[in-house]
Design a protein that fits this description.
This protein has seven helices and six strands. By secondary structure, it is α/β, with parallel strands linked by helices. It has a six-stranded parallel β-sheet, with helices on both faces. The two termini are 24 Å apart.
């Protein structure tokens, strides 16, 4: 069983306009559980959309006199937490960037990501969904996430968007996500977490049982193939 809900990714990430696309997602996902389709869940920010690059660019534009953290020096998933350690008031300034209108819709795609998702969507016996967590400051973020997907993947792909507070509740075979630790209500999610390499996690060591995807130019096809065996 899975749950579709509003969600939060607070970095330190029309009343009926989403109802019917989400309803169709439920039907599509449940229809594949009894078949042989491989279900691939793909995170959005930091995996398909360049959150880190977009944040740094807008932060430096809005606060040109303030100190900043280069992408090479990023450590830890929570952007605001690292800025807060740099100076306490910078935490709020960092947060103001992704809470602003047009932040999410203006994020650039990460190289190769859109093309990879389109290819996966065309594969036989494969279902791919974007599984993403909007920030709590919801005035702009949920709408802009849908708009980003429509802009780069097309209107029909809106049926494949899952907004959730807790990704452990979503059933799948693979979750490609840049967050190192994905915790939630379900202690043993059905999916294997493939860690997508990002500036904030590239220095981390992973266990022998975990796999990384270095970029969308890495061999993601072999990962999918391994899950079919």
């Amino acid at each position: 069983m899975f749950l579709l809900s509003s969600a939060t990714r607070q970095f330190g990430r029309g009343e009926t306009s989403f109802r019917y696309p989400l309803k169709r997602i439920c039907l599509k996902m449940s229809s594949s559980t009894s078949g042989k389709a491989l279900r691939v869940l793909v995170d959005m920010d930091g995996v398909l959309a360049d959150f880190e690059g977009g944040f740094l660019r807008k932060y430096r534009t809005r606060y040109p006199e303030e100190p900043f953290i280069t992408l090479d020096d990023r450590r830890g998933f929570w952007v605001s937490a690292q800025y807060g350690r740099l100076r306490s008031d910078l935490c709020e300034k960092a947060t103001s960037i992704w809470e602003s209108k047009d932040f999410f819709i203006e994020l650039d795609p990460l190289p190769g990501g859109v093309e990879a998702i389109k290819e996966i969507a065309k594969m036989d016996n494969t279902d791919v969904f974007i599984c993403t967590s909007p920030i709590k400051h919801y005035k702009n973020c949920p709408y802009e996430k849908y708009a980003w997907v429509e802009k780069y993947l097309g209107h029909d792909f809106l049926e494949r968007v899952i907004l959730t507070r807790d990704k452990t509740l979503i059933t799948g075979d693979i979750l490609i996500d840049d967050k190192p630790d994905i915790l939630g209500v379900e202690p043993k999610p059905t999916w294997e977490h493939i860690l997508f390499t990002a500036c904030h996690n590239k220095h981390l060591s992973i266990s022998s049982s975990q796999r990384r995807l270095l970029s969308w130019f890495d061999d993601w096809r072999s990962i999918l193939t391994s899950k079919r065996q």
